[in-house]
Amino acid sequence: MHYLNEIFLKKICMSCLFYLNMFSVVPWSSLIPEKLSLCKLSMKPLSDGPPDPKSHELRSKILSLQLLLSILQNAGPVFRTNEMFINAIKQYLCVALSKNGVSSVPEVFELSLSIFLTLLSNFKTHLKMQIEVFFKEIFLYILETSTSSFDHKWMVIQTLTRICADAQSVVDIYVNYDCDLNAANIFERLVNDLSKIAQGRGSQELGMSNVQELSLRKKGLECLVSILKCMVEWSKDQYVNPNSQTTLGQEKPTEQDNSETKHPETINRYGSLNSLDSTASSGIGSYSTQMSGTDNPEQFEVLKQQKEIIEQGIDLFNKKPKRGIQYLQEQGMLGTTPEDIAQFLHQEERLDSTQVGEFLGDNDKFNKEVMYAYVDQHDFSGKDFVSALRMFLEGFRLPGEAQKIDRLMEKFAARYLECNQGQTLFASADTAYVLAYSIIMLTTDLHSPQVKNKMTKEQYIKMNRGINDSKDLPEEYLSAIYNEIAGKKISMKETKELTIPTKSSKQSVASEKQRRLLYNLEMEQMAKTAKALMEAVSHVQAPFTSATHLEHVRPMFKLAWTPFLAAFSVGLQDCDDTEVASLCLEGIRCAIRIACIFNIQLERDAYVQALARFTLLTVSSGITEMKQKNIDTIKTLITVAHTDGNYLGNSWHEILKCISQLELAQLIGTGVKPRYISGTVRGREGSFTGTKDQAPDEFVGLGLVGGNVDWKQIASIQESIGETSSQSVVVAVDRYLDFVRWLCAVSMDELLSATHPRMFSLQKIVEISYYNMGRIRLQWSRIWEVIGDHFNKVGCNPNEDVAIFAVDSLRQLSMKFLEKGELANFRFQKDFLRPFEHIMKRNRSPTIRDMVVRCIAQMVNSQAANIRSGWKNIFSVFHLAASDQDESIVELAFQTTGHIVTIVFEKHFPATIDSFQDAVKCLSEFACNAAFPDTSMEAIRLIRHCAKYVSDRPQVQSEYTSDDMNVAPEDRVWVRGWFPILFELSCIINRCKLDVRTRGLTVMFEIMKTYGHTYEKHWWQDLFRIVFRIFDNMKLPEQQTEKAEWMTTTCNHALYAICDVFTQYLEVLSDVLLDDIFAQLYWCVQQDNEQLARSGTNCLENVVILNGEKFTLEIWDKTCTCMLDIFKTTIPHALLTWRPVGGEFCSGSSSDAKEKLVKFPEQKLFAALLIKCVVQLELIQTIDNIVFFPATSKKEDAENLAAAQRDAVDFDVHVDTQDQGMYRFLTSQQLFKLLDCLLESHRFAKAFNSNNEQRTALWKAGFKGKSKPNLLKQETSSLACGLRILFRMYMDESRTSAWEEVQQRLLNVCSEALSYFLTLTSESHREAWTNLLLLFLTKVLKISDERFKAHASFYYPLLCEIMQFDLIPELRAVLRRFFLRIGVVFQISQPPEQECGVSKH
């Protein structure tokens, strides 16, 4: 009968639903009572004891739930949107479900879960608060409590499996609850609970069998994996698969892949067979937009952050209230006024009630203000006293200290009377205060188990006598209070006391019966709580947001990644079940995918490290302990590398380490002998001494130790891995830099083994370079930046085998790269070939250096036509080789360089122009290698050859544009061509030994002389800055002997060469170079080197004589000034001022040490003074040669002497070469300047020669040889030159304006000279003046009679005195003629006819 009724009821309900879905005009009020009846029917209690499946109560309950499920599952869009129907669900169905959801009857519980799933699928936008209650108070509680049965947990987790398979539901749960400040963290708590179940935590307390535990763990893992799959699905639009493989989680393509419906495909692809109906889930939220909030990811993320801050603050408050309040205020989540804090204490139910009471009862001023505000926010109007007290004490637990209670009761009493001012019972607030205190005491007395003797009603009434202003309160009133408190104690509100038991509160249950009993008690309490909460929220309209943005996944994952990782790690660690391992690996793959998509680095690295750890490839336990799960882990790791390589970043390190070790394991499995496997793990050293069944020490890192090795197992592992080989992991990764960088790092780890380096990863790097060379240049240059740096390090590896492999690989790659050629102004070749340069610079191994040179030579010989920017690296390598001491290296490098300069430059000069400077610099380095002088000379010849290229093809230099765009086109041939050549030649001069530097100097000036006509004026300025470096004191050798040699040879040579160039290009150089040349000549005569000083004056003479005709007046001024400066600075004044040590000459009585100490500085001084004396003589001769032309004065002296010997003066004879001198180009003032110099030099020499005592002291001190020093030649030659200048000017018709000054100077000089001659006592000294007197007398005899009168009258007395000396015949003959002419001019006598050749005008 009951069965027929059930069938009948089902048919009626289905019919009603059909018509309701078809016709929306049916009155809803007619259906609601039916639904209400079903809800009431489902809530009828069952009889005590074990449920009877055939009992009417149970069957009716099950039937009503089935009917409700059918109604909900078949409800159409009209049902889902009607407000009345929705309200009926909230008010009746959810309340009924809260009771049945904790039923111990499996059928009832399962139906309740199904109804909840349907509500979640179809009505979640309207049931936000109700869904929270279901999760928080029922499902998650059942998962967390240790008393629930396996069946209940199993059914809950089955339901969660279906929920977790729907991406929309998973994201919605997070958005609507975890990001709601007022809601529980459902998603976080769900993941944590599932993680604990998946780890098997609490299974012992539940008393489950191993099979049950494993099943539950699998379900937990399945749920976690489903959640992660949903998150992957939700963010799939942001993922790009580099290999265009199927997306994660799809083993085989399904028929739905090609269907047009997108959402069902999404659900089924990542869901399970028990997933929510895709059609239903696709419509979630679509019919109730008025109930849905706007999906703003940024806003929800802010809310989540605020919620975390609040939770952190609450946690701090529950430990230290003031610290928690301070934290919330610092974070801007709580106001600073007492009212704000009081409101927070009122509204926040998560605060610890004891801490709230302690905080409110504290005597601190601010705490009091908060307490007053807290009490004032209560409204006790119209409430009786006990009700008001109950309401007051619901929010916190009274502190134990009496004074704190006193303060709280005092304020409560005042507030109560303030809210009930019309009452007449209490005379004052004191009455209320005392009564409240007494009620607290009564509650404690009646309901505390520690109090044995309970207070009676009479005792209570008696205790309260006289409290109402010395009067009693009515006994009936006090009696009613007593009865009410006895019936129900004053406590906090019920929901505050219902907390989920923590692990510490769980007790081990001795038996299944006790567990069930305890579970039933918990379920009864939980049902009450859930029902109360459901009734409380039945009328609440809470907006529900249907998530749409993929950005939600990021905070979801960051929130839950730790429990996910814990579950998967424990599963892989503890369980060998293949299904568990498969789920864990799939979960890790999903987690890595999410972390990669959103670039969450820490989490991504953690998951990849976990995956790598479970491969057992990088741990010490070794591959011999590998199981199937470890092999599957390896496969998963490599799959991750394939599918997520674009996003792995630093996680590549762990993956590549595993692949490296995998390769080693495969080699071992194939039976390769250890000596052919170059090491394994850093720090593991040893040698192979065992047989095939013994593991060599090198394999310790893979765990191949301890007894015999099961080689069959290793082979089996290799076979299991199969095609998942490390070989297949070298792929073209779009975001390649991290991959390449970490592959290089792993390669370095392999190579760092001192005895057994491995080159597996290095080989992969070579392969990557080879196959990625076709990428666009921008990408390739970034790849090579990393790989090139790695080759730099590997090429310098102390193990020559490794370095040779690196260099040879570089050679092969370079040859392939150079085949592609390069356009102008690009630098890819330069970047690519840089490792050769680095290796050559850092690796000192002759073998490697020789190999590098040979590789470069091969490139030049085979790819010269394609090389562009790479020439720089080539010449840099040869530059480094040029300084080597190994003959073969230097020889090969120089041969190749010569080939480039002579042949390649000839054919491809425009392509090599950018590296022309490097080529010259390279040749310069060859020239400077002192170990190979023949090579040095040949290198200088090649530099000379380079100058021909620059001269023949200047247009190529001018048109080429590169990194010198700021250089004017007309100057490019100088900057890129001539300057490097001349600069490097100057470097050779400054660095090399005498023969090489002399050759370099010669070539440098040859180039100047040959091609100088093409140089611009400002180029010469740059050029001579280089040239003058030869004379730079700072660059001269420090050793005195080397310095002397340098000055005598190189400086001397350079000085003459400079003057030659100046003379050749005078018109250009006179403006830009003359000052510098004079300065350099001045420098030369200042040096303590006689040869250089002589050369300085000689060069000055040559420059002036050869170019003086073209000098301007300004240049002549500079020339005279230069000579004047030289004169002044080289006069050896110290000859007159020097004194021996102690004021007198030190005899040989002093000790040798003292003598050496004294003589050393004196010798240096004397040498310098001697050079100055030489310079003075040279300069006197220079002036004479400049003014009168070389040898003119000597010829004149010879003729004068010859005439005197003939006793006849030919007054009309003139020297033929006289007019070749520069006299006619010099102004009178310039000549006077020179004359002043000569006379100053003459007077100094006279002063020194006259100081016999000083000369003696110098002679005894060792100055100038065996005889006393003298300056006779300086004394006579300076005066002779001066007299020639004066007499020449005196006879010059073009200088009539200066005659008067000349005559005066002549009279003074000549009379002074004659007077000095009369003072001479030394016969040798007088003999030195013979030619001077002949010159003087001859010149005077040649002047006109008028002038002769003036001179003769001036000199006559002095000449008479001279007659007393024993003069030579020639001088007496001239004097005779002088006196005879005096007689004629002054008409004292008549001249003989034959002697009348003197002019009278």
Describe this structure in words.
It is found in: Cytoplasm, Perinuclear region; Golgi apparatus, trans-Golgi network; Membrane. InterPro entries: ARM-like, ARM-type_fold, Mon2/Sec7/BIG1-like_HDS, Mon2/Sec7/BIG1-like_HUS, Sec7/BIG1-like_C, Sec7_C_sf, Sec7_dom, Sec7_dom_sf. One of its GO terms (molecular function) is guanyl-nucleotide exchange factor activity. 68% of the residues lie in helices and 0% in strands. The protein is elongated and about 185 Å long. With 1401 residues, it is mainly alpha-helical. The protein contains 61 helices and no strands. The longest helix is centred in the C-terminal third of the chain and has 37 residues. The C terminus is likely disordered. Helix 19 packs parallel to helix 21 and helix 56 runs parallel beside helix 59.
CA-atom Rg in angstroms: 58 Å
| Average pLDDT rating | 77
- Low-pLDDT regions: 16-31, 249-291, 494-510, 675-709, 723-733, 1144-1158, 1209-1218, 1394-1401
Q: For the terminal residues, how far apart are their CA atoms? A: 179 Å
How much helix, percentage-wise, in residues? 55-70%
Q: What attributes does this structure have?
A:
1401 residues; 61 helices; single chain
